[in-house]
Amino acid sequence: MTTMQAPNAVVMVRPHNFCSNPETSGDNAFQTTDASPDIAKTALREFDHAVATLRRAGVIVHVFDDTSTDTPDSVFPNNWFSTHAGGHVAIYPMFAQNRRLERRYDIIEMLKRDYRVQDVIDFSGLEADDLALEGTGAMVLDHIERVAYTVQSNRADPVLLERFCTHFNYEPIAFEARDANGHAVYHTNVMMGIGTNYALICLDMIVDPCRRTVITERLEQSGRQVIDLSRDQIAHFAGNALELSGTHRILALSSRALDALRPDQITTIETSAQPIPLSIPTIETAGGSVRCMLAGIHLTHRNPRIS
User: Are 5 and 243 in contact (CB under 8 A)?
Assistant: First the structure.
């Protein structure tokens, strides 16, 4: 049951040298420090279990091994590329210097080989101008209504957002969002996720009340049920989830995130998708969760028996 919003395939990058990235800790309030000497091995075990769980649910998972010692955030590939129906791929400029090393053109070549790719638009050269737009971390895309919800931050330059939206035919809806401590939210996808029939979002984190109303109405007008998350639920990554299509429609999220949801919220999700929890507490110390680990493939597979 594939839908435009819920891809049936993802790219994941297996992190061999995982750690919390010192270059991103300045603006990522979700990061914590884990000094365990076995942190990399533990992250690998969490990653492999997550891949196995998704594959059992019928999701196609393309795994690439990271061999660099200079890319601690490689496990989060959704920030440097995205794919779009009609055969379009975007490559993005990253804010942190060491995150720019995550771009893997063997992944792009795999997409060209296995899927129907019409064009690849590479925005990464704009890093030289200190511009960043960190993919589907910076933008939460409503693929059905063609809207790019984007928190204002140094990870989402407004000029580049407009350029992306013009080229890929999305309407930008940018807004300011802050956590309970007043810190600016660094990525939109930690506070918001859009499924086919519902949307997860922390409305309280949207600073401007008028903007909050506009976003709520826009989501409701799309026919989705708005699941309003609390700030505490966001702190447990409840908004960092991705709807996927496998043997049936699922919502991939972390075990910690699922535990933070109320029973009524889970019931609302279950009317459309089955929550599939993935246990990744070590990986979450890097300041991202399940959605960040999944680069959805919204392309047509060249082999119809697989897609």
Answer: yes
